[in-house]
Amino acid sequence: MDFFSAWVELHHRSVDMLPNINLLSLPTGHRNDKTSFQASGGGPEADAAAASVDVEKLRNNIKDVCTTYATAPGIQGQWEEVTRVFSERSRTAPSPDFTIEEIKLCIDRLWPHKTAGPPGMSNEYLISLWELDDGQQLLCDFLNRLLRADDLPSALREAQVILIPKVISVTGPGDYRPINLLECINKVFCWLLATRLATMWNAPQVQLGGIKGLQVCDALMTAQCRTTRDSKEARYSLYLSCDIQTALDALDHAVVAKFLLDECGVQHGSEALQLLKLLIMPPLPFDWNGFSFKRRQGTGVQQGGSHSAIIFSYILGLACQKLELDWREGGEGTCHSSIILLFMDDLLLAFDSWQQAITLTEELQQVLKSLGLRLKTTLMSHQFVLLQGVSVSFPPGSVLGQITWSTSCTYLQKTLTHYEVGGKGGFADTTAVLLDAFGKATHAAFESLQRCVRRGHWSNLHSTFRLCNTYIGGTWYWYSPLLEPCQTTSPEFGLSKDCAYLALRMSPRVRCAAGDLAGRAQFKPVEKDTL
Is residue 300 within 8 Å of residue 250, measured between CB atoms? Predict the structure, then answer.
């Protein structure tokens, strides 16, 4: 039996096991022992009736999240046309096979202890298989067989859905986040497809997330530099902080198909065709409290897939990039390098005036609506600018007149504000604004090392301290581009590090180990300035 047949057989065996799998996961800390969203107050019959009502609510909520557009006029025909084009390209210019080197890059990035799909073929299995010479060739042949397949196995497209609570106390179906448990081999295959195709895609300049070579610190530094410049020049922009709701689950499949058609060249028709097959209308089986039902995902890019973030970031980034260029050509200026700053689905727009904010926000909403996306927004600026907005006459239906106005907001989980008006009495500089968050991050880093400290190899104290110092110090160094090198705050940079060092040195286990080693002339004191 070859690898392909073995994988299909595993899937068939797993089908009978699915009813016994509880796919509603309640992580530690979520105190919710109820099987119903609300107490029935009756006996078993009432509980069963309440559970039936809850399942119907859940089914309707999933239907709203994964809205099916396949029946809309012209949509099915558009997919068929794109599929025909890619099929023709794959015949006229066949793509090269996946190489051992390409697949190795993917296997090396697999994380252990990840939940596998229903057949149970885990990342650990694929990693172990790759360590065998025969296993490498086996996987390589299997993945290339998928690349050339006219019809992909239905099991490869299917994703069992797990519902993760988004809040501590669940009161309704909207409090669950659906995560697709995809086959591990699906993630490997999709990553190979997306990685090849991404080499041809135009990287949007306003997108700082999901693009190779960029990271969250780039977006954080850009945002903080903008507010710092405002404060130093006393010329304040209006910042619209936008969080896109159900971003990866709401992206229109017609938009995804058009993106692949526009961005994928002739030489990679096979990769584009197979990726499109995996993305469009995958079946999603649900099993909750003994009730089973199935939905076809008519929107989104399968949250949980290896390709999801890459495709979403490019599609949204290119749409925002085009909007930015249209604004520039229309004469809309800005005192910053761009109006739009984007990290994955976190948007931050900087407007020079209220009128510009009103006009451009409306255009932004129209663009996002065309992608199937919706916004949750907050307006942030200096209190002087916000007071001016009280006298502004907003058009009917304008989102700016309906959202929260504040002198601070959260961008990428960090406070964004003009430092002189932030907090209770203002801050001295941007570094002071960030110190509180950095202190908490350093404390969290130290807490996460407790197991290492308790079980450390104390016969080599230098290595243990070096590990702690690197990990805790790395929390600061990662943020260092955001901090101004001010002499007034430099003593505080080392405060958390010194506290962590002293806590370790004062630990009874450390003292005992140090004394024992010193008695055997093996202990050399660790100087503070070397840590």
Answer: yes
pLDDT at 486: 54
The CA-based angle 448-450-453, given to 5 degrees, is 130
Q: Can you list the alpha helix ranges (DSSP code H) found in 163-246? A: 184-198, 216-233
Joined together, the tokens standing for residue 276 give: 């499109």
- pLDDT class of 502 with cuts at 50, 70, 90: low
**What is the Cα Rg of the chain in Å?**
27
Amino acid residing at 46: A
Please state, for a pLDDT cut of 70, what percent of the chain lies above it. Answer: 62
**Sheet of 238-245, strand order:** 340-343, 346-351, 238-245, 374-380, 404-406
Q: Domain spanning 216-246+314-417: which CATH class is it, in words?
A: alpha beta
Specify the 3-state DSSP secondary structure of 261: helix
Residue 80's pLDDT is what? 78
Please report, for the chain, the start and end positions of each structural domain, with discontinuous segments joined by +.
3-206+250-310, 216-246+314-417, 430-530
- Angstrom distance (rounded) from CA 288 to CA 117: 16
pTM: 0.73
